[in-house]
């Protein structure tokens, strides 16, 4: 059995918490079919930052950074799509 190094474990926990913190907002927007309270500028800046973290993770073969930011980017892009479509 292979154990994670302490830094990888911390990275996975941080990525999981960061990603999960975004889920309630995405769920409320999906359920209400409304993203009126979300700023498109904020969503675009957030998605760009997450995409850059994802690229950084890929460049450094950092699995925790890749995993967390890939999932978060999908949710951010879904919210951007809803914002553009529903606004």
Q: Could you please describe the fold and organization of this structure?
A:
This protein is an all-alpha fold and 87 residues long. The protein has a domain at 34-87: Up-down Bundle (Monooxygenase), CATH 1.20.1280.290. The protein is built from 3 helices and no strands. The chain has helices at 6-32, 40-59, 63-86. Helix 1 runs parallel beside helix 3 and helix 2 (40-59) packs antiparallel against helix 3 (63-86).
Features:
87 residues; mainly alpha; Monooxygenase; 3 helices; 82% helix
Question: What is the fold's blueprint, element by element?
Answer:
Elements: H1 6-32, H2 40-59, H3 63-86
Helix pairs in contact: 1-3, 2-3
CATH topology of the domain at 34-87: Monooxygenase
Average of the residue pLDDT scores? 89
Radius of gyration: 15 Å
How far is the first residue's CA from the last residue's CA?
50 Å
Helix content: over 70%
Task: Summarize it.
This protein is mainly alpha-helical. It has 3 helices and no strands. It has helices spanning 6-32, 40-59, 63-86.
């Amino acid at each position: 059995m292979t154990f994670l190094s302490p830094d990888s474990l911390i990275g996975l926990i941080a990525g999981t918490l960061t990603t999960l913190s975004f889920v309630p907002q995405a769920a409320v927007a999906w359920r209400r079919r409304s993203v009126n309270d979300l700023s498109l500028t904020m969503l675009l800046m957030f998605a760009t930052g997450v995409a850059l973290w994802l690229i950084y993770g890929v460049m450094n073969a950092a699995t925790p950074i890749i995993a967390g930011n890939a999932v978060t980017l999908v949710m951010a892009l879904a919210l951007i799509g809803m914002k553009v479509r529903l606004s």
